[in-house]
Every structure is written in structure tokens, then in C-alpha cells.
Amino acid sequence: MVGGGQLARMSAAPAAALGIGFRVLAASESESAAQVVNDVFVGSHDSIDDLKRFAQGLDVITFDHEHVPPAYLEQLEAMGVAVRPGPSALFHAQDKLHMRRALSDAGIPCPAWAEIHDVRGVADFAEVVSWPMVLKTSRGGYDGKGVWVVNSLDEAERVIALPLPAGAAWLAEQCIDFVQELSAQVARSPHGQAVAYPIVRTVQANGICAEVIAPAPGLPNERAVQAQRIALQIAQDLNVTGMLAVELFDDGYDLYVNELAMRPHNSGHWSIEGAVTSQFENHLRAVLDLPLGSPALKAQHAVMVNILGGDVGDLYSAYKHVMARDPGLKVHLYGKAVRPGRKVGHVTVLGNDLDDLLTRGRHAADYFSGRIDE
Fold first, then answer.
1. Are 115 and 97 contacting, i.e. CB atoms less than 8 angstroms apart?
2. How far, in Å, CA of 97 to CA of 28, rounded?
3. Which of 74, 69, 100, 34 lies closest to 238 in space, CA to CA?
4. pTM higher than 0.85
5. SS3 374
6. What is the CATH number of domain 112-174?
């Protein structure tokens, strides 16, 4: 797995359970996954030499992020290593303009969008969708970075004057007046088997996922099925291998695709305890072309709340209070240095009373972050 973050860290346990040799390309020996994985190669995903040395003796390469240049992945494939998802699929998650074109061509519902080159282009698009609108860099953005909601031409002009990441362009999108954000996750194997997880509601704070509720409460069954069908169609049309997360806007009537991630995703962390087969295990099964496991819920509801860095530097110090107060709570810490607003872990609770689960999950996450002290 290329990338040594928390997604690789959480992939280590199912890899061990399945008896899979699991090597990680990490930026340093202190990175999240490098702390728990036995076979660690320290190097850069931006170095083709490092990637080639990392790939020696491997059967399959997969990812915990989408940042490896596609041309490098093609060179790895030429070495005889299976790259899953492949370069052509992964590029849709790397470049939002490429993704929008592909989805629109396939008839997938998306917000109205346009490639923007100058202020005149913004003005022309505003005549179509009105204000506010969303401006994005086509490459390099994540967790709210590289995304701006603008309310006037003056605001838009200031944004598009900012420097773009290498190879990026400006993307303008209709600002959807949504009632909730959803995530549809599917796993797909090379021979075409696919499974769809329950549709979840995601709640964002400052562009970062704060909590996930599985299944999405109050979502009509026909809309949940529609979301699963959209994700399955995207996985097939783009030839995705492994986990695919499709982030969606729900305006109460229709669904619109917001973003794609071709890897395990924050919106699926609940599945470690909450599903028969976690997203991490199914990602490994899929890229190795093994039969996929059931994505079914193990309880009526599952709630995952992210732990964001705050005033508590030693997260371990919170264990006694959190665990004694709620023995049914599951805690995952990522071994990352605490910084304000940084995702440093998550908690999960399962059960039948959704309000109670939300209260318990939020209390624990708030205690870890120092927002509360009792």
C-alpha cells in the first residue's frame, strides 16, 4: 500500500488476519502506519526510483491516497505488478475536471459545472447558476482545502488570482442547497464482483468529516438504492478496483455527485465494528481478486465520530475516563501528533437508540479533544 497514513494503519489488522504480506510505502518511520506495520519502506510517492524499489517482489500495489502520478503507475505496471485501482481509474480521483467530464458523459447526476480560465468565465457561469457558486482547484484539494464558496464576482476574482497546483485548472460548480451529505461506498474486484455498503450520512465541520451515521437516518429506501446504483455504475464505468467512496449531495429530491475517493474512506470507518466485513478488509479482498465479504450492518445503527486535535496532547490520558464511562465504545487512535483540527482518531458506537449513540460518540470525541473535562 502506497501511503503510510491512518488508512494503511487500519488495513494492517485485516491483512494480518487474512495472512497477507503487507508492505507500506511511508514518508517516515514515525508515520501512522509505519508504527504498526512490520514491512515498511521509507520513501516518497513522488519518486519513481523509490516506487520501483518499493514494488520489488510485490504482487499488487494499492493506495491510501490518490497522489501518485499516473505515469509512474504505468511504469510499475510495466514491471509486472498489478496496480489497483489502475492509473486510468485513479486519475478521475486526482483531477476533478477529468472526473466531471467522465461522469457527465456517463449521465451521472452532477452539479452544473464549468472550467474557468478568467473572471469573464466566472461571470458567464454565474448567469447560468447564479450566486453563490463553488470554486475548486481541479487538483490537490482535500478536507475542504482548494474549495471556496464565493458570493460575488469580486470574491471570485480574488480566489482565481491565487496560484494553482501544478497541472491544475479552475473548476466552477453550482452550489447545491442540500439537506444532507451522503456517502455511497462500494467494493469492486477485477472480475467484476461488487458489493454496496449501506448509505451513510456525513456531517462536515470546517470542511472535515466530523461524524458518520449508518444507515443515513430517514433516507427513503428508493433514494438509498439510487445512491448505491450511482456508486456501482461509477465503479463499473471507470473500471475501479477496490473501495470506491462517492460523496453525494441530497437536496431532498435529487442526488448529485460531489467527490470520489478510490480507496478506503473516512465515511466507512464505522464498518470496522459495524459491518460484517469492514471497508479495509473488502478493499484488500477486492485488489487481490478474492470473493468479497458481506457489507451488512451488524446493528440497527452505527455512529462514528472523528477525534479532532485540541487541547489534550496526550490522548492516552483520556482512556480511563472514556472507557470507564462507556464500556461499549470503541476507540481508534492513529498515532499522529496532535494539532488543532487534525484528525487524530475516531470512536464508534453501535446500537438501537440513535440519539443515545450520537450523545455517547460526541461526548467521547469532545473529551479526547479537551472540549469537555467530565
1. yes
2. 32
3. 100
4. yes
5. coil
6. 3.30.1490.20
Domain with CATH 3.40.50.20 in the chain: 6-83
Collect all residues with Cβ–Cβ distance below 8 Å to 5 and sequence separation of at least 6. 31, 32, 33, 64, 65, 334
CATH architecture of 6-83: 3-Layer(aba) Sandwich (3.40)
What is the architecture of the domain spanning 180-369? 2-Layer Sandwich (3.30)
CA distance 195 to 317: 39
Task: Give dist(CA 355, CA 243) in Å, integer.
Answer: 29
- CA–CA dist 271, 202 (Å, integer): 14
pLDDT at 270: 98
- Structural contact between residues 103 and 110, judged by C-beta atoms closer than 8 angstroms: yes
Contact indicator for 317, 350 with CB cutoff of 8 Å: no
| CATH 3.30.1490.20 segments of the chain | 112-174
Residues in the chain: 374
Residue in 37, 39, 38 with CA at minimum distance from that of residue 11: 37
- Assess whether pLDDT exceeds 80 at residue 264: yes
